[in-house]
Backbone:
């Protein structure tokens, strides 16, 4: 299922790279219009604090240089914490983010009146490595099913070490391949945690995340 947007997303007469990312929280795909947006959307889907993501969610009228303009945001994120206001993300290359800084400030002020946080994200943040490589790796396991008994067994093997390597954790189970898949799924969901700014491998240390043991 493709989550609907307020305007049709297409690449007719343009060089846009149209794609989509499956979002577990939404049980459906969310569209994006560039490789940069795709990478940011991938990072958003890995955030366990997010309840909902929408692409091209609304149209907003704002005033800039004495004239009225219409703005369509890239993404709208609703959070599981109901006390946190929804966030609108605008994804732009660093040059454009700087070029339209004053315009984005006017949009930010208008959105604040409507109860939204406005954040401009550029490739300086999105392209941070090895974070992207880790997310791409874990994304392959995002649709895996981990039985409750298997989940609890993995949690139960962790208190001996507080933190331990993935390889060490797998050694507690006879089917190491299946356990590895389960660990990657739990890492993707945030039920297990690791340092995402270090390259993920069998020697990476993991521990129970905020979503674990729920």
Residues:
């Amino acid at each position: 299922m493709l989550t609907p947007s307020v305007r049709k997303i297409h690449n007719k007469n343009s060089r846009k790279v149209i794609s989509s990312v499956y979002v577990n929280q939404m049980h459906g795909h969310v569209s994006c219009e560039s490789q940069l947006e795709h990478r940011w959307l991938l990072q958003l889907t890995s955030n366990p604090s997010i309840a909902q993501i929408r692409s091209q969610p609304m149209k907003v009228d704002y005033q800039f240089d004495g004239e009225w303009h219409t703005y369509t945001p890239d993404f709208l994120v609703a959070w599981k914490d109901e006390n946190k206001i929804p966030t609108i993300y605008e994804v732009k290359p660093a040059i454009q983010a700087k070029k339209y800084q004053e315009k984005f400030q006017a949009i930010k002020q208008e959105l604040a009146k409507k109860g939204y946080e406005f954040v401009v994200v550029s490739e300086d943040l999105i392209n941070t490595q090895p974070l992207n490589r880790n997310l791409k790796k874990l994304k392959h396991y995002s649709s895996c099913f981990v039985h409750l008994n298997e989940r609890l067994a993995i949690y139960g093997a962790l208190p001996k070490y507080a933190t331990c390597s993935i390889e060490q954790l797998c050694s507690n189970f006879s089917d190491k391949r299946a356990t590895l898949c389960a660990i990657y799924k739990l890492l993707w969901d945030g039920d297990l945690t690791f340092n995402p700014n270090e390259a993920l491998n069998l020697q990476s240390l993991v521990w129970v995340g905020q979503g674990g043991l729920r």
In short: The helical segments are 35-45, 94-99, 101-113, 123-126, 131-139, 148-157, 166-170, 176-189. The mean pLDDT is 87. DSSP finds eight helices and eleven strands in the chain. The longest helix spans residues 176-189.
